[in-house]
Amino acid sequence: MAKMNLIPYKVEAIEDTAKEIPQGVQMIQAPDVWKQADKGSGNVIAIIDTGCDTDHPDLAGQVIDGKNFTGDGDDTDYDDENGHGTHVAGTAAATASEDGITGVAPNVKLLIVKVLDSNGSGDYQWIIDGIKYATDWEGPNGEKVRAISMSLGGPKDVPELYEAVKRAIDSGIPVVCAAGNEGDDRPETDEYAFPGAYNEVIQVGAINYNREIAPFSNTNNEIDIVAPGVDILSTYTEQKYARLSGTSMSAPHVSGALALVTSIAETQFDRKLTEGELYAQLVKRTVPLGYPKSAEGNGLIALDILNRFEKLFQSFNTFFK
Questions:
Q1: Is 248 labeled as catalytic in the residue annotation?
Q2: How many structural domains does the chain have?
Q3: What phi and psi values does residue 287 have, to the nearest 5 degrees?
Q4: Which family does it belong to (predicted)?
C-alpha cells in the first residue's frame, strides 16, 4: 500500500515566545463565543498527525491520552519529532500559559494519535488504525471523541481508509480534513487529496487574512468550508512557536470551532446531536466570501454570526415599535 503524507506546508517563521490570541482564532470569532461555549469544556478532539510536544507550556494540560501507530518507539510514545502535529494541536486547543497563545477551544482535551513519522510520512494502515482507535476510544470518565482532525492526505482513494472514515462518522464523530495544497489558483480546475475529498468529511480550504482564497488551496466540488491558513501562529516543538501556511493550518480552526459549536448547540437542545446535526450547526455559522463553491464551499467560519443577527433583529424590532 502507498504512503500517506503530511499535506506540504510552509514554515514562515519560528519564534521563542508569543503572547496573543492569534489572528486566525480572532478571525473566526472564537473569543466572542467562549463564554457561551465555556471554551469547549467537556469535548475531546482527536488530532491524527505527527504527535504532539506534550511538554509545551500551552499544551501540557490539554492532552488526555494518545497512541503511537508509526512503529517508531513504543505505542505510548506519541511525542512530535516533526512540529506539524504540535502546531495543529495548538490551533485547536492551546491554553495560554503565562506567555503563550490561545487556541480556538482552550478548554477541550486532545487525544493525540501519532500516525506520521518525523518526515511526515506514514503507511495508510497506520492512519486507518489511528482513525479506528479515535472512534472507539473512551476516556477515564467515559469521555468520547467529538471531532477528528486530519491535516494529511494522499492521492489514492483507498477503500479501507474510506471505510474507517465512514465508521467514525456513522459513530457520530465529525471528521475534519485539510483540502490539500496542490491548488493552481483556478477554482474551475479540481485538485483532490484523500481523505479530504470524501463527501462525508468536512473538507477545509485555506484563506489569508484579507479573506482571499490562498493560491495553494485545493479546489473541488467537495469543499465544505474555508478557514485561515496563511501565516498561522501556533505552538511548535522545543516549546517554541511557529508561523506556518497551508490547508493543514485551516483544518484545526474548524475542529476547534466544532467543539465550541457542540457545546453551544447541545446546551440549547439539551441532548447529544448527531454528526449531521453538528455539521448543520457549523454551516449555520459561516459567511460566503463571493468565491465559487468549488473554492469556498459554504464560506468562512463566523462563530458569533447568529448572536449578531439576533442583536440586529432586536434593534430593528425596537426601532419599528
A1: yes
A2: 1
A3: -130, 130
A4: Belongs to the peptidase S8 family.
**Angle formed at CA 255 by CA 97 and CA 263, multiple of 5 degrees:** 80
Q: Measuring CA to CA, which residue among 227, 199, 229 is closest to residue 289? A: 227
Which one of the listed residues 149, 245, 248, 250 is annotated catalytic? 248
What is the Cα–Cα distance from 293 to 223, expressed in whole angstroms? 7
- For residue 195, say if its preceding peptide bond is cis, omega within 30 degrees of 0: yes
Identify the active-site residue in 49, 53, 65, 224.
49
CATH at 285: 3.40.50.200
Tens digit of each residue's pLDDT, the chain (321 residues): 567 777 767 788 888 888 889 999 999 999 999 999 999 999 999 999 999 999 999 998 999 999 999 988 899 999 999 999 999 999 999 997 777 999 999 999 999 999 999 988 999 999 999 999 999 999 999 999 999 999 999 888 999 999 999 999 999 999 999 998 877 888 888 888 899 999 999 999 999 999 999 999 999 999 999 999 999 999 999 999 999 999 999 999 999 999 999 999 999 999 999 999 999 999 999 999 999 999 999 999 999 998 888 777 776 666 555
DSSP 154: B
Question: Sheet holding 10-15: strands in order across?
Answer: 10-15, 240-245, 232-236
Rounded CA-CA distance 246/183 in Å is 11
Which residues form the domain of 211? 3-319
Residues linked to residue 242 through DSSP beta bridges, in sequence order? 14, 234
- The H-or-E segment that residue 207 falls in is strand 202-207
Helix (H) or strand (E) holding 87: helix 84-93
